[in-house]
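Narrative progress, year one. The postdoctoral researcher (J.K.) led the effort to move from monomer predictions toward full complexes, under supervision of the PI. The following entry was the first complex the group processed end to end, covering 276 residues in total.
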Amino acid sequence: MKRFVFAFIAAFIFIFLWGWFYNGVLLKDVFAEAQSLFRPREEMMSLFHWIVIGQAGLALSFVMIYASGFAGGGIASGVRLGIMLEILAVSARCAFYATQPFPAKLLVLISIGGFIEMIVTGVIVGAIYKPATARAS
Amino acid sequence: MDWKKFFIAFVAAFGFIFVFGFLWYGKLMHGVHQEVPLLWRPEAEFGNHFSWLVFGHIVMAFFLTLLCSKFVPAGGPGPCARLGILVALVYVGNDFIMYAVQPITMKILCGWIVGDLIMFGVAGAIIGTIYKSSSSVTS
């Protein structure tokens, strides 16, 4: 349980910092090109806690999935899970692209960032969380 | 891996996800979505991008089936539904983030969350019912 909590906290911190750096700093200008699809900055900041809750939920569900079946394989399994979950996220983005006028470039860049995010999260979770049986052997 | 069962489970999951998505997000939530009309493509433009929707659903069904078959090799509707719900929680996390950055309403957010949980939970149960390893079938 202790390792589960550590893995969750570490994953959440990484997802938070990466999200801020990649989406908030690196892709700032690309997001600005589709400004009509997003809330004004002040409004977004007033709803910032929803981003934190969402990222915490993302980190928690990642660790829960990992702990419930992938945990035996260590870092490699964490990376594999991260890639699979990001492919699922990309599939949802395809559906968003069909229904919302997002520029394709924006969704491609978000997906590249998503792969990096999920792979590194997999490394972090795989390195920290070890099931009880693996630790005993 | 039993590829025949995998394929049948994938096709069934795709069928369910596609039909559920159409009914839930396209029909039931249509009015709620129209509260923010600027966010959506016009009907004709949506038609031109429809293939992306189908492609997205195919990838979604394929990787959910792959996840279930790798993860829950014994299959069974219960464990696979549980995995589907855990996967839905990843989507729910993204829904919260979308709510903070896009001008969607609280009703849309709630509709997406409930839809994700039902869709992935049921899709997981369908996959688990169809995809069972030989050992679990014979035992």
